[in-house]
Structure formats: C-alpha cells, structure tokens
Amino acid sequence: QVMLNNYPLWAKFHKHQTEMIITKQGRRMFPFLSFNLSGLNPVAHYSVCVDVVLVDQHHWRYQGGKWVQCGKAEGNMPGNRLYLHPDSPNTGAHWMRQEVSFGKLKLTNNKGASNNVGQMIVLQSLHKYQPRLHVTEVKEGEGEETYPSPHTHTFAFPETQFIAVTAYQNADITQLKIDHNPFAKGFRDNFDSMYAASEG
Amino acid sequence: QVMLNNYPLWAKFHKHQTEMIITKQGRRMFPFLSFNLSGLNPVAHYSVCVDVVLVDQHHWRYQGGKWVQCGKAEGNMPGNRLYLHPDSPNTGAHWMRQEVSFGKLKLTNNKGASNNVGQMIVLQSLHKYQPRLHVTEVKEGEGEETYPSPHTHTFAFPETQFIAVTAYQNADITQLKIDHNPFAKGFRDNFDSMYAASEG
DNA sequence: CCCTTTTCACCTAGGTGGTAAGAT
DNA sequence: ATCTTACCACCTAGGTGAAAAGGG
Lengths: 200, 200
Description:
The structure is a homodimer.
Chain A (H helix, E strand, L loop, with lengths): L1 E3 L2 H9 L3 E3 L5 E2 L5 E4 L7 E10 L3 E6 L2 E7 L9 E3 L5 E2 H6 L2 E2 L4 E3 L11 E3 L5 E10 L14 E5 L5 E4 L5 H10 L9 H6 L5
Parallel strand pairs in A: 2-15, 11-12
Antiparallel strand pairs in A: 1-4, 3-11, 4-10, 5-8, 5-9, 5-13, 6-7, 13-14, 13-15
Chain A binds a DNA duplex through β3 and α3.
Protein name (chains A, B): T-box transcription factor TBX21
Subcellular location (chains A, B): Nucleus
C-alpha cells in the first residue's frame, strides 16, 4: 500500500548508519523521503504528513569510528515533529497519481522554530530517529483536524532511520552525500584529478 | 471581500497598457496576481483558481506608438485557461490567513501544453485579456469538481488586463518591467552610469 | 514586413560541505 | 575536549530582456 521510492539509495546510507545535518535555519534531508501510495479511495480526501520519532532513549557518540550509546536522553523535548505535505489536503486520486515527496522538509535544532508549525521538524542532535508517514482521511466540516485521528494509517521504513548531527561524524556518510546530492557537486573531485597532472 | 494586493504597481503598468510575454515553455506574469481574501467560512473547504478571458474579439497591433484594433479574432481557441492555486483545496482559514499569490502561474502560446492542465494558461499573442479570480466552495465526496460550479464567486480587476505578446512593443512597459522585476536587475543601468565617466 | 523562436549573459534564490571561530 | 555556529566558495535551478536567427 506504500512503497519507499528511492530505496536503493537509502539502503546505501543505512549500511553506514545514516546521519542528517540539523541547523538553526533548517536543513533538508538527503536522501529525502519519497513514497508511492496505492489503495486509496480516489474521491475521498486525505492529508499526508511525516513525523519523526525517537528510536531509543539514548545519546549517541561517534567514537573510534563507531556509533556508541552514551547515557540517557532527556525524554521528549518540546518542538514540532510533524510536517504536513504541502499538497494536503487532497484527493486519493491526487496522492496516487504520482510519487509523494518530501524534498523540502527541513530539520532543525532551533526550538524557537516551533512557531512555524508544519515548516520544520525540531530534533535533538546526537539522537537516533525514525521518520514515519501518516495518511489521514479528512471528513468535511472538521476544519483543522486533530492529530492523530482515528482514520490515520502509519508507515515506517527502518532504512530511513538516522542520527541527527550538527556536523558529519562518519566520512563514509559525507562521501555518499557528496557523491549523490546534486547540491554538493562542488565537492566532487572529478575535475581536480583530471587536471592535477598539469599542475605538478 | 477580495482585495488586489499590489494595486499601485498594477496601476503603473495599466496606465501604459500592460503587456505580458508568452513563450513556448511558459513565462511568469509580472506583476503577478496577489489577493487578500476575507469573509470566508473558516472551516469550509474552498478551491481558488485564476482564469484568463478575452476582453474583446479583436487582434491588436502596436503602430505609431499606440495599440490599435486590427481585424477580428478567431474566437476562442482550444487550450487551458484555468490555473488552480497550488494550495487548493484548502480551508477558508487557510486562504484568509495570508495573501493568495499566483507568482508561479505561467502564460504560454503552446497549444500542446494543454496537457499540463493547471500548469500553464494558453493564450493567443496580440489579444487583450482579463484575468479573473474564482473562489469555489468544495463539497465532500465530489472528487474532481466540475467548473464552473454553482458555489463559485468570481472577481475581476480591470487594472490587471493585459495584451499577450511574444516581444515587448512599448518601451515604457519594458522599462517598468526592468525597474520592478528583481529577475531583470541585470538590465538596470545604475552601475553602468556610475562608472561610465572613467571609461570615456 | 511583421511576428516568433532560440540563445545568451546576467541576475535571483537558495541548497552543499568545509573551515574556523565560538560555546559549554 | 566536544559539540555548535557563522561564514564561505561553489554548486543547482531557473527567471529576466536583448539580440540574432527563423518563419510565413
């Protein structure tokens, strides 16, 4: 009923324990979440959103080339962890017509950003998170829907788990980002090595 | 109940007879349409869209520094002239919370672009057009709504009329575009004149 | 001849990881 | 010592009118 679209890419990162940068003004995820939905009622209305929940109650630390648990987390901090897909609400037909992507979802560690509800997801650095997809049927006249609603279906893919960081810890993750994120093209060394010989 | 937001700018262009470029791949309007809505039911759902209709049945030609009518138009050509606001459908509260802008609406003369319904508005060059705003209440279970619906309110501002062109005719219009559109900043001559003296 | 299309330099707008300074 | 922030050069992505080329 729900398929993770860029599964092979997620799997590559997951093998090295995915890290996602969080900044004050917000940072996009890479890879970003993208799903194929099916089995919805084409004429019913749905809201689609993503939230991000703690996988465990521990701090994590990168030490000796490995991620290790380290003390207890402070429990759930305040701050928005829900991102409503910008197309919401919309018909089942709309959601099934093409992939449902969250390329503009941003992660932040700025607790004051909770005001911009639905704009940014607020996380704590060095904690491990699991993104989840929610598909909620919207009934007429309910206005701003309460969440969670009794008509919500929730999906989670373990391959999309990540540790929130303010700077990359594992060089393998950094290299995967540089290799696959078009915005990091400036850090690929294809051209440097092409012309290196003439500079010696 | 509906206010045109950037009225002073529209008025400046209207005084010289606004022109809008149309291209095959689509060109944004400048100025773009932006409205303030009020008086909606906050919890009801609405779709908001813009269409563009012929003002008269004539070709227009720019001759001797003036726009003059010139023969009859071929009547209504096929092609989409309806642009659904990307936030549609949404609650009355959403539409009234902030300005409703159509900054990404694109105009084209490419009749084949009708496939991308709701993406581009197809117009004929050298014809005069009037953009209109439509606010339609959406009832549950109707799926893809028919248009026009009996619950639609329509608004039109004469200041937003324009003649579609493939190249600007009136130099006054060109200068207004250069002066006010941030993307045309490269054609402002502020800096040229600053340094002209040292180049003579 | 008049209108349209293509290409271009020049912008806006904003997403990257690196780096060095700052904070605790 | 460890984590965070601010700034940077370098990208992607795409919106401008000018000018030249194309078409009927």
